[in-house]
Write a structure and sequence with these properties.
The chain is mostly helical. It has 3 domains: about 35 residues, no CATH class; about 80 residues, no CATH class; about 30 residues. About 30% of the residues lie in helices and about 5% in strands. The longest helix has 29 residues. The chain is flat. The structure holds zinc ion.
Amino acid sequence: MSVRHVFVPINAKLGEGFSIQEIAKAGEHPGRRTKTNGYQSPATWVLELVSLRKPVILCSFCRYKFDPKYYKYRRFYVANAAGHDPYRTDGQCEDCKDRTDRSPGGGTMFVAEEQYPEICFEPKSLPGWNDYIQWRLRQAKQRVYRAAATTWRAVQRS
Ligand SMILES: [Zn+2]
């Protein structure tokens, strides 16, 4: 008896195959084009990048699906004088393929651990590291203040 493998894409009913929209969407990203059926799932594409130890850019919505520790990846870090988040790298998300600057907090680039010393300075060794920690604390305080203000307004309204 032979075993038949049936591949069912996300958002499709059993036996439907890939929709025209899915194939068209795959065509937007060069890495997602395949010769056989014109469609490659985001997970396959990300794993392909990981197997080649290439950088992976993800938006803040898709980031949680990727476990950098498991694949021995690290967040790309570059300190800049403009005071932007040094862990932020924008581009096209490898998963949803949207521009990462549209997602809250922007995108993150993950680079292979073994390439990290060639690409990034160790963040803690840089003179800007303390400034970064201070900046993160200020942001956290602002978030708490904003949440408190929203709750207070809601209490006053009720
Ligand atoms: Zn995404």
